[in-house]
Amino acid sequence: MNEVPQATIERLVVYYRYLKKMAERDLEDTISSKTLGDAVGTSAAQVRKDLSYFGEFGCKGVGYDINSLKKCLERILGFNRVREIALVGAGNLGRALVNYQGFKEMGMEIVEVFDCDIDKINNRVGRLTVRSVNEMEKIIRKRNIKTAIIAVPEEEAQGVASSLVKAGVKAIWNFAPVALNLPSEVVIYYEDLASSLVWLIYKSGHGNLKVNVK
Ligand SMILES: NC(=O)c1ccc[n+]([C@@H]2O[C@H](COP(=O)([O-])OP(=O)(O)OC[C@H]3O[C@@H](n4cnc5c(N)ncnc54)[C@H](O)[C@@H]3O)[C@@H](O)[C@H]2O)c1
Question: Which class is domain 6-77?
Fold first, then answer.
């Protein structure tokens, strides 16, 4: 299979959400690529191209069976099994992520929260009790957790990431604004809400600005 672009995976999630709503409404059995594209802000051709990475879907002239396509996307995206996730840093961002309910419907659940602050350890964040970062490696190894979120200050992120990898973590969603130096087999996704906002503002006001850098 060709390497699937990140943007395709992100769109599959959007298709999935829409199909889930359609399935819950239970008014139609099928959906065309045009209707699905229109509903999520992309073209019919893009929908077909995104799905083509994973095989053949739908019937010409009929469209896609809503429930079957939803089930296929669940399998492709791994929503049909629960992935346990550890979060490090029970601060403002960490607490918001733990309390966000939307991960669960996609088979992802934050099951452990770690922090180094003695005032936070043993306190609750949502339904979880914050554990000491000193116990992190042991607990992650024991629970066989492979995915983690880093929400600590930038100067702490590398140390935390190295400990996570030592404990067996293979995928890291990093919110700290710093590049991590980790073995190449570890997948890292750098999240930066500020850069998304900068992009938005740039596009809306200065999208055509040209600057000569000397
Ligand atoms: N990417 C984004 O879009 C985005 C958005 C908001 C915040 N951030 C980043 O996320 C991080 C957290 O932001 P915040 O506002 O929640 O900060 P915060 O200060 O509220 O929380 C940080 C938490 O990390 C804990 N901590 C510090 N060192 C630690 C260590 N070694 N091990 C375990 N826990 C440790 C602190 O005790 C604290 O509870 C920062 O790096 C910030 O820049 C990124």
Answer: mainly alpha
